[in-house]
Amino acid sequence: MHTLPATDLELAAWLRLSLAPGLKPAALRLMLSAFGLPEAIFSQSPEALAEVAGEAAARAALAPTGPEFDSQLDAVIAWRELPGNQVVTLDDPAYPPALLTMPDPPPLLYIKGRLGLLHTRAVALVGSRSATPQGIEDAERFARELSMAGIAIVSGLALGIDGAAHRGGLEGIGGTVAVIGTGADLVYPAAHHGLARQIAMRGAILSEWPLGTPARAANFPQRNRLIAGLVSGVLIVEAAMRSGSLITARLANEMGRDIFALPGSIHAPLSRGCHRIIKQGAKLVESPEEVLEELGFTRRTAVRAASHSRQTVPWDSPDSGSSAAAKISGAQAILAAHTTNSATADFAAAQPPAPPPVPLTSEAQRLLAALGHAPTTLEILGSRTEMEDAALQSTLLQLELAGQVTALPGGRFMRASHGQSRADHS
């Protein structure tokens, strides 16, 4: 190893341990507790280390570095010198205190952005990569409101719910933290390059993986453990039965964190994971305020005023529904005319067999996808699809007549359960 300043020699020792193949963080923590800093570990005999952490861990810790180690160290030092970048070791006062409550905190963390966010109370908001439009809106709204209350929003930078959580978190004073499953010098998925730049400037990006580590499926459960470790609670917004979000929830539960979940339609595949963890004891929440109350956060008066200054119309607003109700009265009248005689058995028996269902137009398919599984107003559907009013209303009528959509009081619409199942499996 080439000659280095004392601080870089310390970093080299930590890097050597963090890169040691087969040395698990929990075993390393045992050694550090017994012997102190990494340099002291390297001066121990294999027998002394084995007595503390086992033979395999002793061999891994004392294994010589490979020929590429010097170049890896140079890369880390160079990366650390870039503006906003920091490398934090387990003995550093800047190390996130929440992670120290884990049994296996990483020895080395690569951080881009605001290190202070890792020392504030935080909530993880995670969910499906294939989120519905309603799920995206819910995730952004919850993240924004929690961030406005001063809470950092932690997620994993994935597509879908994670991305929405980060975008919402950036709108409040709490900010957002992205815990990633690649090296801190890479962005995955590539579609989130712009979002990652915003987070690095106004939030924080955190990785325990060596620089240059590509995205590998096996890395993400370990990434989820860090998300769980950083936070006071985990909120799940849309998750299938087999979901990485449920892994995060399980790990967080094992660490004593609170688990929350948004409920959804019993017909929605992405509600099933949420319903499953609710049955297992997660707290069902319907508003950001419920999360704040459960975690004992006090909402700041100034922040409350700021949040109320954002004029938004919720999907169940009576005002938004009254104008929509007038617009759809004609469609309801047509539907009523079509169903007047449907209750007469003799009439029904005399009818010819029902024709096969008419294939949906591309506009109808797009509108059905935008509808999701929760009651939604015309205004929200218009903003999601960018369809003109006339096209929107005629397409909704087509879907109602096809049995795919149900009109509800207050000018709201939702998928019909039988129609929804056909659409989901098409």
From TrEMBL:
Transmembrane segment boundaries: none
Stored InterPro entries: DprA, DprA_WH, DrpA_SLOG, WH-like_DNA-bd_sf
Family matches, as NCBIfam families: dprA (TIGR00732)
Domain DprA winged helix: 351-411
Domain called Smf/DprA SLOG: residue spans: 86-295
One GO-annotated biological process of the protein: DNA-mediated transformation
Domain of life per record: Bacteria
Protein name in UniProt: DNA protecting protein DprA
Pfam families named among the record's database cross-references: DNA_processg_A, WHD_DprA
SUPFAM superfamilies referenced in this protein's UniProt entry, alphabetically: MCP/YpsA-like (SSF102405)
